Amino acid sequence: MQNWQNLAYLGASVLMIYTFMGLAHPRTAMRANLIGALGMTIAILATFVQIDVWPLVLIGIPLGSLIGAILALRIRMTGMPQMVALLNGFGGLASVLVAGAYLIGQPSVDLQTNVATAASGFIGAVTFWGSLVAWDKLEEFLLKGGPILFPGRHVVNVILILLVIGLSFALVMDPTRTSLYWWLCLVSSLLGIGLTIPIGGADMPVVIALLNSYSGLAAAATGFVLKNNMLIIAGSLVGASGVILTAIMCKAMNRSLANVMFAGVGSEVTTGPKADDVYAGKIKATSPEEIAMVLDGASRVVIVPGYGMAVAQAQHAVKTLATLLEKRGVTVDYAIHPVAGRMPGHMNILLAEADVAYDKLLEMDVINPSFPQTDVAIVIGANDVVNPLARTDPTSPIAGMPILDVDRAKTVIMIKRSLSPGFAGIPNPLFAAPNCLMFFSDGKNAINDIISAVKES
């Protein structure tokens, strides 16, 4: 039976690896997701041979499936990062509880198992509470989205880390003192909160990617505790992919992970020009009729989706506008910034939902050289990712961040509800540029009004 179980784990691991390969491309992502679910199902069934508490398992599977299905069906696309944060957190909590239960049931004298148990408790608790803080900062249920900074926070975190190291060492040396494990989890929980709460909402997607990696590492550690090969492999894959995604996002923002974790970007900016000085007397508000006239003479239009499009659920209206323009002979493309929205691929998913052809979604490096030949750039709710201060002001919080060069288009139509700043908390001189027209409206309403005006023109 053990041989058959290991063979099943091997097959499930191969399916998991194929899943990660398939998720790298939108055309294969859905199929890869189903293959991953199949691999996990095989792993779960193979694990049943070790279980002797069938009633609890038979209760837990349908109950967990029901909760997961309800959450998946009810979640808004704008709330997907919060959903991912919660999933990371529950994964970390599961590692804490499973490793703790194993420790209580059969304390081990094996050094590797003891180290893995301490790692499961430490990483899992940090992941759970850090993920809850990340969820709350994005949801703004109890905490505000900006950084929450307090004096001496770094010192407190260092003290907590030293306590974690001390408790881990004591637990490894004497695993029969199970109370040490729960003290370790408590201190690690405080550390997870302390590390996450100073980080602003703009950087929270990066933190969620990092916490995703942590949840994988916690699962892998728990795999060593249980001597479960499948859990070790799956956890390692998740841990590695989370680190890679974190690195990609940091590169897209031209910032180091240390800067994301400790710089507090997104707090109130007290240096640099004030919004009134940047915008005073220079903002040119426009109307749907004027935009229709501009589009009437355009041969190439680039649509730049941002978080405002996600909030307004404007992707279907955007597709309708693009189709209308294409029927008139206009070339329409979409410019996608890696961190537009609140998670990598956020804009791709929304536009795919509206059946926008994937080959029209052009990444930043591909689309940027063509902006000088673009007649009209329509920006829907993006801010920091199109802010030219990233290129021109070395003292700006976003200095050096790669941006979409929409300011180099012949005409820029900026759709926003107001002149409020983005997550970085700084004004955007693009709003006051000579080639920029501001259309103050909700994203979906704005696009629908433009569609009506274009049809009437």
Describe the structure.
There is one protein chain. With 457 residues, the chain is an alpha/beta fold. The chain has 2 domains: 75-262, no CATH class; 275-456, 3-Layer(aba) Sandwich (Rossmann fold), CATH 3.40.50. It has 18 helices and 6 strands. It has a 6-stranded parallel beta sheet. It is globular and about 75 Å long.
The major beta sheet can be summarized as: 6 strands, parallel
The shape, in one word, is: globular
- How many E strands? 6
The domain tally reads 2
The average pLDDT value, as a whole number, equals 90
Helix content: 55-70%
Order of helices and strands: HHHHHHHHHHHHEHHEHEHEHEEH
- What percentage of the residues does DSSP assign to strands (E)? 5-15%
Considering the chains and any ligands shown, give keywords for the structure.
457 residues; globular; alpha/beta; 2 domains; 7% strand; six-stranded parallel β-sheet; Rossmann fold
What order do the helices and strands come in, and which of them pair?
Blueprint: H1 2-22, H2 26-47, H3 54-74, H4 80-105, H5 111-139, H6 153-173, H7 179-196, H8 204-226, H9 229-252, H10 257-262, H11 275-279, H12 288-296, E1 300-305, H13 307-312, H14 315-327, E2 331-336, H15 346-353, E3 361-363, H16 364-367, E4 376-380, H17 389-392, E5 411-416, E6 436-440, H18 443-456
Parallel strand pairs: 1-2, 1-4, 2-3, 4-5, 5-6
Summarize the structure in short.
The chain is α/β, with parallel strands linked by helices.
